[in-house]
Amino acid sequence: MVIACLALTCSSLLLAQDKTSKPPAKAAPKIISLSGCVVRSETAPGRYTLEDPEAGVKYRLTGTDVRDFLGKRVEILGGVPARRLVIVGGLTPNANVAAQAGAMDPARAAVASAGGSAGPGNVELTEFKVKSVRPVSGGCPN
Asked: In whole angstroms, how far apart are CA 123 and each of 12, 31, 93, 102, 139?
C-alpha cells in the first residue's frame, strides 16, 4: 500500500513538471550593419554582392532587392542566416590522416583537417540577408 502511494505521488510530480516546463525561447537574430559597394555577381546573373575594397570582404546579398543601388555605396542592415545542423559520418578529416594519429606532422594534420587551401574555381561567398538598404556618401571604384 505504501509503495502504491509513493509511486502515485512520484508520477503525479513528474506529470506536473512536464506541464510547467516551457520550451527554450529562440534568440532574436542579431542585426548587423555593413557598408560597401553593390556589384553584380560574376558567377550568377541577377545576383548581387556587397564589396568593401578597403576591408577586402565580399558578401552575397539575398533578401531585399538591391538592383536599384547597383554601382553605389550603401549601408545595409540585416544578418547572416543561421546554418542548420548537418551531421556527417566517417573519419575526420579522412581515413589516412586519422590512421596516422600522432605520427603525422602537426602542421600537415592541421592543413588536412581544415580542408586544404582553396583551389581554382568558384568560391562560395558568405550570404548576407538584407533587411534594409540606404545610400551613403562616397563613390565606388569602377
From this structure: 57, 25, 20, 32, 27
Catalogue the long-range contacts made by 115-121 (C-beta closer than 8 Å, 24 or more residues apart): none
**Inside any domain, residue 1:** no
Instruction: Answer whether residue 7 is part of any domain.
Output: no
Q: What's the rounded Cα separation, in Å, for the pair 4 and 38?
A: 72
- Here the CATH number for the domain that contains residue 60 is 2.40.50.500
The values of phi and psi at residue 62, to 5°, are -130, 170
Q: Do residues 79 and 29 make contact, with C-beta atoms less than 8 angstroms apart?
A: yes
Residue 21 DSSP symbol: -
pTM of whole model > 0.90?
Answer: no
Residue 98, amino acid: A
| CB-based contact 130:62 (threshold 8 Å) | yes
pLDDT at residue number 84: 73
Question: In whole numbers, what is the pLDDT of the chain averaged over residues?
Answer: 74
